[in-house]
UniProtKB/TrEMBL annotation:
Transmembrane segments: none
Protein name listed in UniProt: Uncharacterized protein
Swiss-Prot/TrEMBL keywords: Membrane
Cell compartments where the protein resides: Cell membrane
Record domain Penicillin-binding protein transpeptidase: where: 368-672
Phylogenetic classification of the source organism: Bacteria, Bacillati, Bacillota, Bacilli, Lactobacillales
Main subcellular location of this protein, as a coarse class: membrane
Start and end residues of each NTF2-like N-terminal transpeptidase domain: 48-167
Domain Penicillin-binding protein dimerisation: 175-334
One GO term (biological process): cell wall organization
Xref: InterPro entries: Beta-lactam/transpept (IPR050515), Beta-lactam/transpept-like (IPR012338), MecA_N (IPR007887), NTF2-like_dom_sf (IPR032710), PBP_dimer (IPR005311), PBP_dimer_sf (IPR036138), PCN-bd_Tpept (IPR001460)
Family designation: Belongs to the transpeptidase family.
GO molecular function terms noted in the UniProt entry: penicillin binding; peptidoglycan L,D-transpeptidase activity
């Protein structure tokens, strides 16, 4: 019995466990294999995505040298490219059209249904070009993956989607004409004209010592350095029979060996130095300009100073043109982008070109400025600053030596003195007088006894005195303006007090933006909201202290005397509306204008020399001193305020900054005043 038990077959229960374990083992083996496949697939997908991302980023960064390493060698060979040719192709096309700001969207990568080692991709791209935006460019292609290495199967369609074979991309640019800047009579202040381009033909210069001698002659005749000429000749594109531009010059019949002149078009400034700070100049667009304004391209020019900069967008217009795909024979296949040219707009100013030139010439290179307005309308007829620079050189090529001469000039030719703030000096006594008449603290018929050439209120002023030039024992308002008496004005300002004085000043333009296309500080009464002493109050009454106004602001303020008490705001664009505001009573202005006429007609008047012109004038001169202590001899700025006392057709404010010995703004004015009297 025992023996039979030992030989008993395996029971059905045991067999059941065996059959249950076999599928489980198979499942574990299969699961491991499937997990490995999934891992491999994910690795391949990640590699494919990574190479596509690297490719797109290289285009975004214009890193064309990185492209060959991302492509399969076979794909380049099949398209008849080597690595260098691929780099050159992208460089020529994308740089040529001014491609910037490359972006990609809707990037997808999927495994190819036919080949597990191939991944297909699509994405859309956009970029800015010199002609505008190229958007919604739809790309597709494939990526070969071997292990963890992924490479793109390159074809020309990856440059632009419809390219193939040896297709090219061409760009034609229809450059917009920059708008002109015109004066009130439509005479040009900035225009597009004919320029004369000096250049050399390398093959005509000879060789060796002969070439060296010819280059030296060219440099000497046209104020250039030999290094500059040699640098131009060493450019990569230069060949013996090419014309190599050097600089814009005046026409000349006496040309050195190897040189010639070609006509070209460019920006010209007919008044040159006479209107440089007003009109400004243009220059070639830089990479920084494009970064700040992607609409610009490297073949644009942009306003660099003055009105050329302030109105650049209106003047510049927009270039037109076309970006096309052509076959290798130049036949057009597709237009990628087409844009119509939009020329810039002309801008017409209130400026009188002839008056501007006369005003600048009158300054005769001295540091100063002249502003002339048509006071009834606010039209600015003249905005001249001296010394100056030549905007034609700045635009069309200036040597380093010439630029350094401007930069190192102590008289600062680049600054605009008509927007620079100064203490207005005695011309401002007219305003103090008007405020005193308005508030009743000044009686024009009352004479004030003043003794000597200096005065102080009391001993609390210490060693500070108000001084005057002429010792007149008894002074009324007319005499105070005729003799330009500081003491009278100081006393009257103290009599009216700070509150009344500031209230009168607040009705003018202090702290206001005059809405002109210039950068300038607002006119100020004092550094703080109140005067910190009676001395500062007194000094302000005769145009010194901490009072600061630029010549435009002075001319604007004094427009009340040509408009029966109404202040007329300045304007520079001819079609701008006139703005004004009532400030003083007409009878107040009538009184002061009679006195200002006497400043010219009275033989003791500080502007009496102008009487010889034989034209109706009212005027006030001024001298503002800039010094640290009262006893020192400081810088003196000379001013002249004058206007047509008969018809109020023009108003002038001229100044000399640190006037030269024996000079004054009044001495420089006759030619300009004579012209204005004849025309306005």
């Amino acid at each position: 019995m025992n023996k039979s038990r030992r030989n008993k077959p395996v029971t059905s229960t045991k067999r059941k466990w065996v059959w249950l374990l076999l599928p489980l083992a198979a499942l574990l083996i299969g699961g491991g294999f499937y997990g490995y496949q999934t891992y491999q697939t994910n690795q391949k997908m990640n590699a494919a995505k990574q190479v596509l991302t690297t490719f797109v980023n290289a285009l975004k960064d214009n890193d064309f040298d990185a492209l060959p390493a991302l492509m399969t060698e076979n794909s380049l060979t099949e398209n008849h490219y080597d690595q260098d040719q691929l780099i050159e192709k992208y460089q020529a096309i994308l740089t040529g059209i001014g491609a910037e700001n490359y972006t990609s969207d809707d990037v997808t990568v999927t495994q190819n249904t036919q080949n597990a080692d191939v991944y297909d991709f699509t994405y859309t791209a956009s970029m800015s070009t010199s002609l505008g935006e190229l958007t919604d460019l739809t790309y597709s292609g494939s990526i070969a993956v071997d292990g963890d290495q992924a490479l793109i199967e390159w074809s020309p369609e990856l440059i632009f989607p419809t390219m193939s074979g040896n297709d090219k991309v061409s760009i034609t640019v229809d450059n917009a004409n920059r708008g002109a800047i015109l004066d009130r009579n439509k005479q040009p202040l900035a225009e597009n004209g004919t320029l004369y381009q000096l250049g050399v033909t390398p093959g005509q210069l000879g060789t060796g010592d002969e070439k060296t001698a010819n280059i030296k002659t060219i440099a000497a005749q046209f104020n250039m350095t030999e290094d500059t000429i040699n640098a131009a000749l060493s450019q990569s594109w230069v060949q013996d029979d090419y014309f190599v531009p050097l600089k814009i010059v005046d026409q000349t019949a006496n040309l050195p060996t190897g040189t010639s002149i070609q006509e070209t078009s460019g920006r010209t400034y007919p008044l040159g130095e006479a209107a440089a700070q007003l009109i400004g100049y243009i220059g070639t667009v830089t990479a920084e300009d494009i970064e700040n304004n992607p609409e610009l391209s490297s073949n644009n020019q942009i306003g660099r100073a003055g009105l050329e900069a302030a109105y650049d967008q209106e003047l510049r217009g927009e270039n037109g043109g076309q970006i096309s795909i052509t076959d290798e024979n130049g036949t057009e296949k597709e237009v990628l982008l087409a844009k119509e040219r939009q020329d810039g707009k002309d801008i017409q100013l209130t400026i009188d070109q002839e008056a501007q030139q006369i005003a600048f010439d009158a300054l005769n290179g001295q540091a100063g400025a002249t502003v002339v307005s048509e006071p009834k309308t606010g039209d600015l007829l003249v905005l001249a600053s001296s010394p100056s620079y030549d905007p034609n050189l700045m635009t069309n090529g200036i040597s380093q030596e010439a630029y350094d001469a401007y930069e190192n000039d102590e008289k600062l030719p680049f600054i605009s003195r008509f927007t620079t703030s100064y203490a207005p000096g005695s011309t401002f006594k007219t305003i103090t007088a008007a405020i005193g008449l308005e508030n009743g603290t000044i009686d024009p018929d009352t004479s004030v006894a003043i003794s000597g050439l200096k005065w102080q209120k009391d001993s609390s002023w210490g060693d500070y005195y108000v001084t005057r030039v002429t010792d007149v024992a008894s002074v009324n308002l007319e005499q105070a303006l005729v003799y330009s008496d500081n003491i009278y004005m100081a006393q009257q300002t103290l009599a009216m007090g700070e509150d009344a004085f500031r209230e009168g000043l607040s009705s003018l333009i202090f702290g206001e933006d005059l809405d002109l296309p210039f950068s300038m500080n607002a006119a100020q009464i004092s550094n703080d909201d109140t005067f910190d002493s009676e001395i500062l109050l007194a000094d302000t009454g005769y145009g010194q202290g901490e009072l600061l106004m630029n010549p435009i602001q002075q001319a604007t303020t004094y427009s009340v005397f040509a408009n029966q008490g109404t202040l007329v705001y300045p304007k520079l664009l001819l079609d701008a509306d006139t703005r004004d505001k009532a400030v003083f009573k007409a009878e107040t202005i009538t009184q002061i204008n009679q006195d200002l006429t006497a400043v010219v007609s009275d033989e003791n008047g500080t502007a009496h020399t102008l009487a010889s012109l034989g034209i109706p004038l009212a005027a006030k001169t001024g001298t503002a001193e800039i010094k640290e202590t009262q006893d020192e001899q400081g810088q003196e700025n000379s001013f002249l305020f004058a206007f047509d006392s008969e018809d109020q057709g023009y108003l002038l404010l001229s100044m000399l900054d640190d006037r030269e010995e024996g000079q004054s703004a009044t001495k420089l004015a006759p030619d300009l005043l004579t012209y204005l009297a004849g025309k306005y």
